[in-house]
Amino acid sequence: MKRFPKPRVVVSRCLGFEACRYDGSILRDRLIDLLEPHVAFVDVCPEAHIGLGTPRLPVRLVQFGKELKLLQPGTDVDATRDMQTFIEDFLQNNGDTDGFLLKSRSPSCGISDVKVYATTERAAAIGKGAGMFGAAVLEHFPTAAIEDEGRLRNFNLREHFLIKIFTLARYRECIAKRSAAALIEFHASHKFVFMAYSQQAMREMGRILANPQKKSWKEIEAAYREKLHEALARPARHTSHCNVLEHALGYVSDGLSAQERRHFLATLERYRKRRLPLSSVLAVVRSWIARFQQSYLAQQHYFEPFPEDLIELSDSGKPRLD
């Protein structure tokens, strides 16, 4: 069984940690319950932190020209400056974070679907965007895994989020050793991950590690980290995963029966059509790695990128959610 480092993930406090929503409620989130044993969570409620209380009258984002303000219409409170002060303090004290799992539609925590208004009066929204805290997170942590709980109901986005936070956590462990050998080992064990996400970035990372110009450790690590973040910036395409899995098939193909090959290719086709999550296909390959004691594939984190108990049984055969 693989050992997994604990990713550092900031999470909205109302998602299972405390009844701190504006109406005094708490929302249970299945993924967060599953993650809790495996992740170092930092829970945060920006609105509670700045003293708005629980329960509280709702706040909203109001656009005044080029300025966006956080206002509480029921009390005429302008919470903009207090929120900005909290954000500045938070950013200074939480720089080494692998991911964020934030509350959707929240005027503070939302990352894309927060209603923006032109007035505090009752009126229709004029647009949507990120909440004040969510916008700051997106700006200051551009390379972290950042999602809201609504989007992670899509199992493709969820798998990408999990792959990314655990890969970044392993990378933090690796660079703490300040060893070129450790970095080379990290790259070798993630080769199939990078192959799926970006073959171009994978090749460039390999050239950086070859270090023909004899650069310093600091220069190598900085250049490698930039390419790592570039590779993981967005979910890998289904076609790229299929190519990697077909490549992996070649390592065990000689030991498989014709029926086993047909079963695998049929499973892969269901994944290609987005009728199965990636984890369902990986489970088949993992069984063959164990059966044939395939040491090269066994070292690849691609086949077990995050703890197995984070995979929901209900994902099997579950349609893709858009």
> What's the SSE pattern?
EHEHEEEHEEEHEHHHHHHHHH
Q: How are the strands of the largest sheet arranged? A: 5-4-3-7-8
**What percentage of residues falls in helices of 4 or more residues?**
40-55%
Count of domains? 2
Structural summary, described in words:
The chain has 322 residues and is of the alpha/beta class. The chain folds into two domains: 8-153, no CATH class; 158-322, no CATH class. Helices cover 46% and strands 12% of the residues. The protein has 13 helices and nine strands. The chain has helices spanning 30-35, 46-49, 80-93, 132-140, 155-175, 180-189, 191-197, 199-210, 217-231, 238-252, 258-272, 278-292, 295-298; strands spanning 8-12, 40-44, 60-64, 67-72, 77-78, 99-102, 114-117, 127-129, 145-148. Strand 3 and strand 4 (67-72) form a beta hairpin. Helix 3 runs parallel beside helix 4 (132-140), helix 8 packs antiparallel against helix 9 (217-231) and helix 10 packs parallel to helix 12 (278-292). The longest helix has 21 residues, at 155-175. Residues 316-322 have low confidence and may be disordered.
